[in-house]
Amino acid sequence: MRYLRIFLIHFHRVIENRSRSVVWTLLSIFNPLVYLCFWFAVYKSSGKVVGDLSLSELASYYLLLTFAGSLLMAHIDESVAEEDIYEGGLVKYIVRPFSYFWDLYFGELGWRIFQGGLSIIVFVIFSYFLHSLSHFVSSPILILLTLLSIILAYTLSFIFRMILGFTAFWVTEFRGVQNVAETIILVFAGFVVPLQFLPVFMQKISYILPFAYMIYYPILAIQGKLDFSQMVKVLSTQAVWIVLLSLLYQYMWRKGLKLFTGVGQ
Q: Whose CA, among 31, 94, 126, 157, lies 20 to 30 Å from 115?
């Protein structure tokens, strides 16, 4: 009940600042549409698309990428690094009688839900004009597993972003670390191209790293391209990564607090 109240308080702030969500949602559309224009040009010149995907399926993938990026990809690392660690804002969380992690988790969840809802509207509009609505998961059990995968994907993304923010305990310039991480995520989460289009050695790397399980596999699950056994494998991998990153989070949290001062670094 406590964390439900926290969520509702944060969500009220999200509604108050809804114009910010609209701007970020519109910005999230830009990259997928640029990539989609590229593939339309490829199809127009050659009459086919690379791999076994149809143009409609590819358009659906990039439009779902807008939805997945808005709903599943947390953006908490910058505020953790700059506001809480560098500026000393972490003090107010330390003295509160509830978890810093869960406070930020439910606070960020409000932003993701609202922006995810906006991106659904965008998806429907562009799908109508592009005629890209493809098959979606329909089996009741697979729908439940897909919803579970979405929850785990957000959790995985959130923990990773928290860890990324915690690097500010040790470095004086967080933006460099952030830029490197963003580049890796763009490639290995499937933001640039579907992972099946990558060279084989890069595909193998992407299947090991956690980033594909934040974005790429949830999209495939929504499209109904994963059967029961594949869904179980994806969920298991997401769970393993959540455990591993949670252990790293706890370690960095304990070590970082020893370096933290109330006035920042």
A: 94
How large is the greatest C-alpha to C-alpha distance in the chain, in angstroms? Answer: 62
The span from the CA of 111 to the CA of 13, in Å, is 9
- Distance, in Å, from the CA atom of 138 to the CA atom of 250, rounded to the nearest integer, reads 39
CA–CA dist 31, 171 (Å, integer): 30
Q: What percent of the chain has pLDDT over 70?
A: 93
The CA–CA distances, whole Å, from 63 to 67, 68, 79, 210, 258 equal 7, 9, 28, 22, 44
Q: 3-state class of 220 per DSSP?
A: helix
Length of the chain: 265
Q: 209: Cβ–Cβ under 8 A, 6 or more apart, which residues? A: 184, 188
Q: How far apart are CA 251 and CA 245, in angstroms?
A: 10
For 50-104, how does the pLDDT look when each residue is reduced to its tens digit (9 = 90+)? 666 777 778 888 888 888 888 899 989 999 999 999 988 898 888 777 889 999 9
**Whole-angstrom distance, CA of residue 77 vs CA of residue 160:** 9
Residue-wise pLDDT tens digits, 171-202: 988 999 999 999 999 999 999 888 988 889 99
The answer for residues whose C-beta is within 8 angstroms of residue 117's C-beta and 6 or more apart is: none
Own/partner long-range contacts of 147-151 (Cβ < 8 Å, ≥24 apart):
148/235, 149/217, 149/218, 149/221, 149/231, 149/234, 149/235, 149/238, 150/71, 150/72, 150/218, 150/221
